[in-house]
Design brief:
This protein is α+β, with helices and mostly antiparallel strands. Helices cover about 30% and strands about 20% of the residues. Among the domains are: about 25-40 and about 145-225, Outer membrane lipoprotein wza domain like (Outer membrane lipoprotein wza fold like), CATH 3.10.560.10; about 55-140, wza like fold (2-Layer Sandwich). It contains 5 helices and 10 strands. It is flat and about 90 Å long.
Length: about 260
């Protein structure tokens, strides 16, 4: 009995030491002062620009409602039922082609890639004055989404309702990192201008707030790598399950063979 108690005590000490030695890798923004207020100018904010593959929802209103309606068919849903707002029944929108253009009624082909939605509002309002009385244009990117994968609570693809989301906000949508997620080397994957970037991000440093990648763009992917202990534990559990299944299989064969009559 004493030997069992001694073994249990040693195991507890080892686990406690392991948890203490790894705590320093867990907290976010460790280089921020914990006793004083820190202030910082925001210099890395970037306006979201339209790019090929985006789907634009364009709403046009004017003193001529009937004439404006021709531009608003894009706000209908795929099945035509606006009461059904399920992901399978998305808004039609205007798809930005590979050349960065959309085709609008009356106006025709229009360059939209590389502009913000605010800039496009002003441009289209100016062009529509030829056809409408006092037009007002509102534009949204309908398919703005980000993906969060790896060692988080809820990995998924998340639709963004506005045009601004940060890395911490995206991780919050996914339920935050699990305790076994590596915080000082998550990976941001971004496709822009025909190129793919792989950007390492350190959540343990306040330098994240100054990063040009702090604000996410459409179709960004965040991947959180699990630490080695989690991978090792998962492999051990898999091996144990495999051994149990193998043992049960052998036992079943032995029992069935004893029941066979010759």
């Amino acid at each position: 009995m004493n030997q069992n108690l001694l073994k249990a005590f040693i195991i507890v000490i080892v686990l406690f030491s392991f948890s203490c030695s790894n705590y320093k890798t867990v907290p976010y923004f460790q280089d921020l002062s914990q006793t004083a207020i820190t202030k910082q100018e925001i210099t890395n904010f970037s306006t979201l620009l339209v790019q090929p593959g985006d789907i634009l929802g364009i709403n046009v209103s004017s003193l001529n409602p009937e004439a404006s309606a021709v531009f608003n068919y894009n706000l209908n849903r795929v099945s035509g039922d606006n009461t059904d707002r399920s992901p399978q029944n998305s808004v039609i929108g205007y798809l930005v082609d590979v050349n960065g253009n959309i085709r609008l009624p009356l106006i025709g082909e229009t360059k939209v890639a590389g502009f913000s939605t605010t800039e496009l509002n002003d441009q289209l309002q100016s062009k529509l004055q030829t056809y409408l009385s006092k037009p007002i244009v509102n534009i949204r990117i309908l398919n703005f989404k980000i993906s969060v994968l790896g060692d988080v609570l809820k990995p998924d693809v998340y639709t963004v309702q506005n045009e601004r989301i940060t890395i911490p906000e995206a991780l919050s949508l996914a339920g935050d990192l699990n305790i076994t997620g590596i915080r000082n080397n998550i990976m941001l994957i971004r496709e822009i201008n025909g190129k793919r970037e792989f950007v390492p991000i350190d959540l343990t440093s306040k330098k994240l707030f100054e990063s040009p990648y702090y604000y996410l763009k459409n179709n960004d992917v965040i991947y959180v790598t699990p630490n080695k202990q989690k991978v090792s534990a998962a492999n051990t559990a898999f091996q144990k399950v495999g051994l149990i299944i193998a043992g049960l299989s052998v036992l079943a064969i032995i029992i069935s063979s004893k029941n066979i009559k010759f």
